[in-house]
């Protein structure tokens, strides 16, 4: 009884196989490349299964990150995972890519803040804290201007661990706001691990949580630009009329 | 031959704003063709927004594939192969179909067959009546205007193509100029029926004997006409303008298609792509082909626009020729039909 987990939400592509009975991670592949996930995801899955001497029949569940991150990347993972789930009649579990990254800080005593650059001085982020071996949300995941985000984090008055390769871009600003209270993940802690995704999915599976349906869609955390602009314009017109 | 009768191919198409999956048997028999159109989603933006399209595709894809097999009454393990549009199209949209097809092929242990979108449009005709070679195909869609010569299955030779805008693109741009809602092609078609081609507009014949097309001059001429009329505060008769524009496009399309048929000496002319829904084009080509005793094939309206059945049909012959892709297959927004 194995679970296959895949994550293509960011530059990091991760694939892991987890044993649902022994609760052991059997294998994990991570790359951190600006390279096409579309080309490499399926061959990586195939290769990992082959190396572990597993066939598709050994799989009992699947897991995928639902975003946020790169729109195209997330869709490659979600489409692949839910198609496999349907074709093999397997339950599919999803987890936020921020939660998966936050799990690297599960032993940290304080707040854990994973983040991905969302451009224009904004970040995809959330504030987490470890509780009973799980990451729980202290502030909800959102796309937010980095300064106002740091303002909110500062108000929590706790030590904070920042995680993710993109943190480096905001390091100076973070230190300006939080000073000594901020600490930063080291290289390996900054990559989301697919085995953590597998672990999160294993917990859902063992708690008999309902799996995702065929219409499962990513959680981008924000509207498309076209929709946002349309709403802005539309809202304005309504305001003018009223 | 026997094998061909039995072949069961699942087709997947997500190159633009239609999420579609279909099952075709023996290359010609349409068992299902499920199409989820996003037209309503994009209308308020005045055109297809790629990111919006991709988001809708990912949401719908699995359900559509499931429906296609259900409606066909075919079990997923009975399939011989999974065919998918590799390109051309919107890359983010194509990626959904390609990712799904790869996952499906891997999960079911079936061959993965990449298909060119325009080959698909041509093979739409094959679902009605088998193609008879050699033939010439006039491909007119939102992104293409081409004359293709085919000696046999999977053999595509280009006789000519547009040097600038595609015919469908010209329809859509002119429609926008006339403030018609998206998509403009059908709107102009409808309006043209009520008007007379009274505005003089240019036809780009290019070099005598050329089988290439050009529509950007025509588009500019319409733009100037509208602009000048506005400046002089003259009223434009939109139905007449639509009729004049359509006439100019059709003159060139029909004459070049007939020239291609003559030059190659074939007996069959195929019409393919979204613009083949145009009623004027259908009438005029039918008339000319009847006069010249050419066997004209026009797909029914529901097979003119993007659909997965045409991809499954074209994919059948790629499959029979052993043109498989491995799991590294990627979407290609600019995939050429002729390599
Ligand atoms: N009745 C019609 N008259 C003229 N044009 C039409 C008609 N119906 C549809 N079209 C045009 O056909 C085009 C859509 O066709 P289709 O869906 O095949 O193109 P596409 O998929 O966008 O492009 P491509 O197939 O080249 O990638 C649009 O430009 C549309 O305006
Ligand atoms: Mg098309």
UniProtKB/TrEMBL annotation, chain A:
Q: Which GO terms describe its cellular component?
A: cytosol
UniProt cross-references to NCBIfam families, sorted A to Z: T6A_YeaZ (TIGR03725)
Question: Where does the record place the Gcp-like domain?
Answer: 33-230
> Which keywords annotate this record?
Transferase
Q: Which InterPro entries match?
A: ATPase_NBD, Gcp-like_dom, T6A_TsaB
UniProt superkingdom: Bacteria
Q: What is this protein called?
A: tRNA (Adenosine(37)-N6)-threonylcarbamoyltransferase complex dimerization subunit type 1 TsaB
In terms of Gene3D superfamilies, this protein maps to:
3.30.420.40
The record's gene field reads tsaB
Alphabetically, the GO molecular function entries are: transferase activity
Keyword hit for Transferase: yes
Q: Which Pfam families match?
A: TsaD (PF00814)
**GO term, biological process aspect, one:** tRNA threonylcarbamoyladenosine modification
């Amino acid at each position: 009884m194995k679970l296959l987990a895949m994550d293509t939400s960011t530059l990091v592509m991760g694939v892991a196989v987890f044993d649902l009975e022994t609760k052991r991670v059997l294998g994990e592949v991570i790359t951190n490349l600006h390279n096409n996930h579309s080309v490499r995801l399926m061959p990586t899955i195939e290769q990992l299964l082959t190396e572990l001497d597993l066939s598709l029949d050994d799989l009992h569940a699947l897991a995928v990150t639902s975003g946020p991150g790169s729109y195209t990347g997330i869709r490659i993972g979600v489409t692949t995972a839910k198609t496999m789930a349907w074709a093999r009649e397997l339950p599919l579990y999803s987890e936020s890519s921020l939660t998966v990254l936050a799990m690297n800080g599960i032993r940290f005593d304080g707040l854990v803040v994973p983040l991905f650059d969302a451009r224009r001085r904004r970040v995809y982020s959330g504030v987490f804290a470890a509780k009973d071996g799980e990451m729980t949300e202290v502030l909800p995941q959102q796309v937010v201007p980095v300064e106002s985000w740091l303002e909110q984090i500062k108000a929590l008055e706790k030590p904070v661990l920042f995680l993710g390769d993109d943190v480096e871009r905001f390091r100076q600003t973070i230190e300006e706001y939080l000073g000594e209270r901020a600490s930063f993940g080291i290289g390996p802690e900054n990559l989301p691990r697919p085995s953590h995704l597998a672990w999160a999915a294993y917990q859902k599976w063992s708690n008999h949580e309902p799996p995702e349906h065929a219409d499962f869609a990513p959680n981008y955390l924000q509207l498309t630009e076209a929709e946002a602009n349309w709403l802005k314009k539309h809202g304005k017109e309504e305001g003018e009329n009223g | 031959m026997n094998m061909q009768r039995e072949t069961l191919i699942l087709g997947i198409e997500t190159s633009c704003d239609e999420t579609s999956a279909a099952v075709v048997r023996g290359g010609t028999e349409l068992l299902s063709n499920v199409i989820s159109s996003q037209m309503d989603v994009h209308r308020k933006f005045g055109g297809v927004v790629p990111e919006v399209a991709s988001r809708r595709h990912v949401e719908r894809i699995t359900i559509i594939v499931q429906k296609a097999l259900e409606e066909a009454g075919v079990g997923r393990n009975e399939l011989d192969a999974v065919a998918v549009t590799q390109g051309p199209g919107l890359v983010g949209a194509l990626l959904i179909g390609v990712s799904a097809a790869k996952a499906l092929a891997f999960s079911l242990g079936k061959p993965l067959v990449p298909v060119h979108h325009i080959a698909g449009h041509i093979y739409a005709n094959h679902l009605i009546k088998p193609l008879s070679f050699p033939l010439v195909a006039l491909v007119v869609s939102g992104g293409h205007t081409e004359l293709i010569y085919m000696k046999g299955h999977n053999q595509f030779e280009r006789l000519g193509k547009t040097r600038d805008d595609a015919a469908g693109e010209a329809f859509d741009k002119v429609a926008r100029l006339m403030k018609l809602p998206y998509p403009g092609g059908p709107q102009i078609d409808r309006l043209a029926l009520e008007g007379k081609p009274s505005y003089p507009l240019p036809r780009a014949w290019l070099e005598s004997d050329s089988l290439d097309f050009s529509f950007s001059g025509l588009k500019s001429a319409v733009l100037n006409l509208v602009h000048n009329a506005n400046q002089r505060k003259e009223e434009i008769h939109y139905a007449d303008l639509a009729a004049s524009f359509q006439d100019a496009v059709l003159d060139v399309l029909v004459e070049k298609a007939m020239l291609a048929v003559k030059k190659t000496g074939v007996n069959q002319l195929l019409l393919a792509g979204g613009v083949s829904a145009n009623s004027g084009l259908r009438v005029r080509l039918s008339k000319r082909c009847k006069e010249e005793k050419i066997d004209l094939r026009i797909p029914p309206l529901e097979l003119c626009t993007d659909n997965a059945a045409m991809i499954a049909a074209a994919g059948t012959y790629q499959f029979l020729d052993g043109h498989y892709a491995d799991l590294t297959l990627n979407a290609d927004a600019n995939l050429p039909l002729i390599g």
